[in-house]
Specification:
GO molecular function (chains A, B): (S)-2-hydroxy-acid oxidase activity; FAD binding
CATH architecture of the largest domain in chain A: 3-Layer(aba) Sandwich
Protein name (chains A, B): Glycolate oxidase
CATH topology of the largest domain in chain A: Vanillyl-alcohol Oxidase, Chain A, domain 3
Keywords (chains A, B): FAD, Flavoprotein, Oxidoreductase
Number of strands of chain A: 18
Structural class of chain A: alpha+beta
Domain FAD-binding PCMH-type (chains A, B): 35-214
InterPro entries (chains A, B): FAD-bd_oxidored_4_C, FAD-bd_PCMH, FAD-bd_PCMH-like_sf, FAD-bd_PCMH_sub2, FAD-linked_Oxase-like_C, FAD-linked_OxidoTrans_Type4, Oxid_FAD_bind_N, Peroxidases_heam-ligand_BS
Largest interface: A-B, 84 and 85 residues
Number of domains of chain A: 4
Number of helices of chain A: 16
Oligomer: homodimer
Distance between the termini of chain A: 26 Å
Helix content of chain A: 25-40%
Shape of chain A: globular
CATH class of the largest domain in chain A: Alpha Beta
Largest sheet of chain A: 7 strands, antiparallel
Chain lengths: 464, 464
């Protein structure tokens, strides 16, 4: 195996990193999961040719390759372990082209979502996908996971915002998938197939992104509190049913709200209180905000409306502090089920049931406008737990039992295992439950077309 | 081979149609192309089980199957010929579910786009894809071709409006692809792969569609004439660059405009005159229309604005009469290239060049908001030309030479062979030019995963 590293070093020089710290870091993402053992090396690619050379050597030596960006994933999909190469694209972060007239940009995969959007804003443009990690996650990682975010119900997910990708497949060949045009139906849509494929089909070395113009006009923010989570869920469904189209509609349950208030040293909320935070934008922002406020009041909410952009950001801060607040409670397994919007109240009932029956606490936030929930399973890292590099703590079995119960409830309600985080390592054992055995096998065969030797992210997504 | 028909008849009874008229009709679509010879039978499926039985018998007997809807295709993709079965889904036309709260509908594939939208309108909803054929084309056909239409720049194409499909694959197994949720990244996105796959991967027997609420507010219509086509194309680019987002922006060149005026017995336009017809909708319709009118005047246009919905429809009638007007000129090969919006003026220059160099007339309309052009190659059906059932006339070689020149020009400009009609039979020989040989071969291998015996629409899309 050391022959691989030597060959890579001969080809790529100092871009092949085998320092113990780098190898240890490459084992983990932000999910709490870490791969077993240390990878052989971290290749820091700086060009498409670097990626092609790496894949050629990997193919010749049958060495598994795990593609990484900024390692902000929440499903373990980019974690590299024993006998594997970590191929980092983080250094490939150039913007190659911005075309305001065609509303597109061509970028390398390693650029951070927020950095891209800063550059686009100078042209009055933006790339709409806005995962909560946007300040620290890469466009390539957003594409690999099919990321979502807060604005999806109105402005779409990654799949709606990519025209084409350049893909290096397992044997090192470079394919140009997709097109630069708004419409295009020439052949099979391999661009969409690659989006969300989590490094199992190839290495995304470039992307042609579909842009939007920055939305002119005001932004209005509405914060409404409710006596319990079901009431907030029913109110959010009423907002959707009213025909209003909020840009953002975030729901925080009582656990979440209390934890954030404690972290920010705000006055504690009324026990049991839950919150909806809603933003409207565009030319009808004010009218829509007023109409939504009426719906929320009629649904039993206590409502405050702000027409000030900065005050709105302050109201949203409570939602944005969710992750730090969870860390203050213990260790969190952050989950990601999605259900049809009408099933949100029933899904919150199921979460309460799982909490009761399994004796666990599951603070939950939801992108209520699109039915995507993030239940946070809280646990204490026990003294004897498996702790890897960087203080990684794996969720214990009783937490996974509770998560299993919750996943199956989401599927029963017509939902899906993962709305935006991906399958990675952590959800691979439920994949066939959702897809069915026939589709699961078909998907594996499609992967094999791109990667006949099975060297691209083996053990992720399609392992049982 | 007659054994196939007997087995089908034993299983499906009178739903197996072998009348000469039905067989002859199944050879053709609206492209002008017809398959060689007559198919063995037309199976009129009325249920998913009918489709599964047909595919099981087809697999056992290695009989090719061509799936058909309303036969309005423009690339020959649904034409069935000698030794093949035509599998019609037109009779599977039920709406199974409409959910205003979840903004989705579940339908069978044979329902007409317009019939679905009539039913949805009662709930204040619509399915956005609006191919020009919407009154006569099926939702299943729209999915199979990845159809577009007039409203795409603002409201998206079929790919943006389908959450999931039920697919019967070659051996008769039924797969449920996709989900009912707004977000979902569980496994590979096979739904997107099936959209636009033109019957090569499986039989779409059901679809979960993503709906929109009917857009409230006014509709404004702007008609602007220009002295030549380049001026109109530059003006349409200026509208896009201004940040306005028209719902519809249609460009007619001088040939097209003159032909429609003649057909409708309107006063002839000034020689060389071209037209842009633009509609704005939603809460900012009037403001946007006024701003667009200013841009058009600054670009040298003679502009008329109407705030009346019916008057707007009258202005659009000129555009909608394009196809009948072409038929009045001769026989038309209707093409479908798409280019980045900024390349529209250059593409019109190329069309003029092809007209000059090949001595053909190519009246062209364009969905100028998204860069999709429909050049109509006009020819006379010569006395000795191949005329099949229903008066089908194949385009002669000199027309294909001119089309070849035009396709290559579109590719050079960063465009694509087909924006919304598909590859079918008529464009298969250019497919590898756009995809590259490596991707072309990869796509064929993916098809083989779904259809290892090659019985699904053989000879279409992936034949050279």
């Amino acid at each position: 195996m050391s022959g691989v590293v030597e060959r890579l070093r001969a080809a790529l020089g100092h871009r092949v990193d085998t320092s113990p710290d780098s190898l240890a870091l490459a084992r983990a993402d932000k999910s709490g999961h870490a791969a077993s053992g240390l990878p052989l090396a971290v290749v820091n690619a700086t060009s498409v040719e670097d990626v092609q050379q790496t894949m050629r050597i990997a193919t010749e030596t049958r060495t598994p390759v795990v593609v990484r960006g900024a390692a902000t994933g929440l499903a373990g999909g980019a974690n590299a372990g024993e006998g594997e190469l970590a191929l980092s694209l983080r250094a490939m972060d150039r913007i190659l082209e911005i075309r305001p007239d065609d509303l597109l940009a061509v970028v390398e995969p390693g650029i951070l979502n927020a950095d891209l959007n800063t550059a686009l804003a100078e042209h009055g443009l933006w790339w709409a996908p806005d995962p909560a990690s946007r300040a620290i996650s890469t466009v390539g990682g957003n594409i690999a996971t099919g990321a979502g975010g807060l604005l999806c119900a109105k402005y779409g997910v990654v799949r709606d915002a990519v025209l084409g990708v350049d893909l290096v497949i397992a044997d090192g060949r470079l394919l140009h998938l997709g097109h630069r045009t708004v419409k295009g139906v020439t052949g099979l849509d391999l661009t969409s197939l690659v989006i969300g494929s989590e490094g199992t089909l190839g290495v995304v070395v470039g992307a042609t992104l579909k842009l939007r113009r920055l939305v002119p006009g005001e932004v209005c923010t509405i914060a409404a509190t409710f006596p319990d989570v079901r009431a907030a869920a029913v109110a959010s469904a009423a907002v959707t049913a009213s025909g209003a189209q909020p840009a953002i509609m975030e729901l925080m349950d009582a656990h979440s709200l209390a934890a954030v208030h404690a972290l920010l040293k705000l006055e504690p909320p009324t026990p049991g209180a839950t919150q909806l935070t809603i933003q409207t934008d565009g030319p009808a922002a004010v009218t829509e905000a007023d109409a939504i406020a009426e719906v929320l009041r009629a649904s039993g909410g206590t409502v405050a409306v702000s027409h000030d952009r900065e005050e709105g950001e302050r109201l949203l801060t409570v939602r944005r502090m969710m992750h730090p607040a969870m860390e203050s409670l213990g260790t969190a397994l952050i989950e990601d089920v999605s259900v049809p919007r009408s099933a949100l109240p029933a899904m919150f009932d199921e979460i309460a049931r799982v909490e009761r029956e399994h004796g666990v606490t599951i603070p939950t936030v939801a992108h209520a406008g699109d039915g995507n929930l993030h239940p946070n399973f809280i646990f204490d890292a026990p003294a004897g737990s498996a702790i890897g590099a960087g203080g990684i703590v794996e969720a214990p079995a009783y937490i996974w039992d509770a998560a299993d119960d919750l996943f199956r409830a989401a599927l029963r309600l017509g939902g899906t295992l993962t709305g935006e985080h991906g399958v990675g390592v952590l959800k691979r054992r439920w994949l066939a439950d959702e897809l069915g055995d026939d589709q699961w096998e078909l998907q594996r065969q499609i992967k094999a077309v791109f990667d006949p030797l099975g060297i691209l992210n083996p053990g992720k997504v399609f392992s049982r």
